[in-house]
Amino acid sequence: MEKQIILQTKGINKYFYDPVKFKALDDISFDVYQGEFVSMIGKSGSGKSTLLYILSTMDTDYEGELFIADEKITGQKQDKLASIRNKNIGFVFQFHYLLPEFSCLKNVMIPALKLGKYSSGEIEEQAYQKLELLGLKDQALKPASKLSGGQQQRVAIARALINNPKIIMGDEPTGNLDSKNTNIVLEIFQQLSKEFGQTIIAVTHDNDFANNSNRIIEMADGKIINHDLKR
After folding, report:
1. Residues 6+ apart with CB under 8 A from 16
2. Cβ contacts of residue 212 below 8 Å, gap of 6+?
3. Is the dihedral of CA 216, 219, 224, 225 positive or negative?
4. Other beta carbons less than 10 A from residue 2's beta carbon
5. Which tens digits make up the pLDDT trace of 91-129?
6. Domain that holds residue 61
7. How many helices (H) and strands (E) does the chain have?
8. How large is the average pLDDT for residues 32-42?
9. Quick one: pLDDT at residue 230?
10. Beta-carbon neighbour count of residue 196 at 10 Å?
11. Residue 22's domain is classified under what CATH number?
């Protein structure tokens, strides 16, 4: 059975104009398939974070086209983009951005409450399920501030999953973690990809992390220099 393309870019170019005109992304075209775990690597200034910002629909000032789940994203209005983001994209950043005084459960529930598709009771049940998947169900009612850094990042992953997004986008998702917790997060991403068909696109400086994803997209000077399909 042919895998579905979840994200597609066609000829994306991006310029910065301050202090002088500079081409940050140069003719970026690639496809990402459902269930793929893709790492984007490259030195600082290679364009990977700039590209992730466009893929996440946050930056709309570019040339070319972006499609998510067969829907053309380029040219959509801001309120529509916000809706697409909340429904289709889960974010995991280097820092967890949890609300420290809220319980883990409440933190996980927030994006789903915002989406408004289910009742608060249904959302709570789904939040418990996500926390259980990440081995944190017993921590659900604890304030986020009482958890370790590794646990907080796992709560952030549960929050990213709550709306069952088409794609999880990670910006250095293990950047603040020690090696033990980095391996835990990596194993979670591998499980989500293999067992649940979750598409993951992560920018990383961690070569071990990248080498354990399905595919590495390597960037340099705003261009893709390698589409290494690993397995």
Report:
1. 22, 24
2. 186, 190
3. negative
4. 5
5. 888 777 888 888 999 999 988 888 778 888 999 999 998
6. 5-229
7. 7, 10
8. 92
9. 62
10. 11
11. 3.40.50.300
Which pLDDT tens digit goes with each residue over 189-216? 898 899 888 999 999 988 889 999 999 9
SS3 category, 24? strand
Average pLDDT over residues 39-66: 91
The model carries a pTM of: 0.89
d(CA 160, CA 97): 11
User: How many domains does one find in the chain?
Assistant: 1
Task: Tell me how far the alpha carbon of residue 88 is from its chain's centroid.
Answer: 10
Q: How far apart are CA 100 and CA 94, in angstroms?
A: 16
Q: With contact defined as beta carbons under 8 Å apart, do 167 and 199 qualify?
A: yes
DSSP 18: S
Alpha helix (H) residue ranges in 17-139:
48-55, 78-88, 104-115, 120-133
The encoded tokens of residue 3 equal: 């895998």
Tokens of 192: 């989500």
Helix (H, G, I), strand (E, B) or coil at 186: helix
Residue 178, classed as helix, strand or coil, is coil
